[in-house]
Amino acid sequence: MIDFDEALRIILSHAPGPQEIQMVPLDAAIGQVLAQDIASDVDVPPFDKASMDGFAVRSADVAQPPATLDVVMDVPAGGVPTGRLEPGQAAAVMTGAPVPEGADAVVQVEWTSGFGTPTVEVNRAAPKGMHISPKADILKVGTPVLLAGTQVDVEELSLLAGAGCDPVPVFKQPSVAVLSTGDELVSPGETPGPGKIRNTNGPALIGFLRSLGLNPANLGQVSDTLDDLRAAVGKGLGYDCLLLSGGVSAGAYDFVQDILNEFGVEVHTTRVAVKPGKPTVFGTLNGKMVFGLPGNPVSAMVIARVLAGPALRKRMGYQDPASRVIRARLTSDIRKKPDRLWLVHGTIAFDRETAVTPVKNRGSADLPAAGRGNCLIVAPKDTSLVEKDAQVEVVVWRRCF
């Protein structure tokens, strides 16, 4: 076995980066990874902007309220001032409207009387700069707003739109396929007969890949016969990355490694000092990646998150493909064998402190226990006890928050 950190290093060293750049429409960029830094092509705001409905005034004119001013213009959002504001004058403005030259404050409408009349009475003083967002206060032309390697989410879409970035330069995403192996498997919609179980790994891995922003192909399930497995793996190697589950241990019907060797796949890992997930295979062939994940469902998803996930994020073009790790206080002891690093499902809570509680489980087939967790607690190798109240590393994902 090789240590987990070494396995991750090997996998990331052999995982290729993004291969191509493509332009996609702005409304299709969600989930994509930016291939270039994006800079603003305008000042934000592009002019001195009113941040409240009310009246643009000269602060000196309202220094000793009440003050009565002549309303000489009306500037709606999207409108343009018709002139300069002179002493004793005011302009009715809406939120987002340009403030006319000469004005240096906006008095909110609640502090005035006479709205809609030729004059307005201002009942409070307005210091210079009140309720005005200065031109380029948020962004100047040429300021980077997003960096290459950023995955586009809702907020990024707004920034891209504001920067006039349409179409959007993104990395072309890798093609990925999922293949489940095992004579015992039946489809989720079938009732298992004697000796059979439902295929849970396939749907879970498909969902995981979609959560990364990928569009995986489902190659279904294949029996543990050499000819069937050879044909299915051959098809899977047509994709940029193939995720197999099952058939990677040392049993009489575990043929995955032999078949990968037949196709010329260079295998870099076969056993990793981690629980769950020891029988993890990773190989490469002509820039393509192959992950042989354990057949046990909890093991398969843990390894998908902590080893396949970083490799795929690197291939997708992420700035930082590593799993997100935070520190938290452990609320109860974890007792373990010292031979391997353990990844223990836990529930993390953010209250007055960040604390994580291990989830009791019955092994790497205990899907209900894994479903109760929302993170993975890292229990290091070479220790048999991680004590309550220790600060531990925790692998987190969106479900944690």
General description of the model:
The chain has 401 residues and is of the alpha/beta class. The chain folds into 4 domains: 2-18 and 173-316, 3-Layer(aba) Sandwich (Molybdenum Cofactor Biosythetic Enzyme, Chain A); 27-42 and 143-171, Alpha-Beta Complex (Molybdopterin biosynthesis moea protein, domain 2), CATH 3.90.105; 49-133, Molybdopterin biosynthesis moeA protein, domain 3; 325-400, MoeA, C-terminal, domain IV (Beta-clip), CATH 2.40.340.10. The chain is built from 7 helices and 29 strands. The strands form 8 sheets. It has a 6-stranded mixed β-sheet, with no helix packed on it. Strands 17-14-18-22-21-19 form a 6-stranded mixed β-sheet, sandwiched between helices. A 5-stranded mixed β-barrel has the order 23-26-25-27-29. A hairpin with a 2-residue loop joins strand 21 (281-285) and strand 22. The protein is elongated and about 90 Å long.
List keywords for this structure.
Molybdenum Cofactor Biosythetic Enzyme, Chain A, 4 domains, 7 helices, Molybdopterin biosynthesis moea protein, domain 2, 401 residues, Molybdopterin biosynthesis moeA protein, domain 3, alpha/beta, six-stranded mixed beta sheet
Write the layout of secondary structure elements.
Layout: E1 2-3, H1 4-14, E2 21-24, E3 38-39, E4 49-50, E5 54-57, E6 67-75, E7 89-93, E8 105-108, E9 112-113, E10 119-122, E11 132-133, E12 144-146, H2 154-162, E13 168-171, E14 176-181, E15 185-186, E16 197-198, H3 201-211, E17 217-222, H4 226-236, E18 241-245, H5 256-262, E19 266-269, E20 272-275, E21 281-285, E22 288-293, H6 297-316, E23 324-330, E24 334-335, E25 341-350, E26 354-358, H7 367-372, E27 375-379, E28 385-386, E29 391-396
Helix pairs in contact: 1-6, 3-6
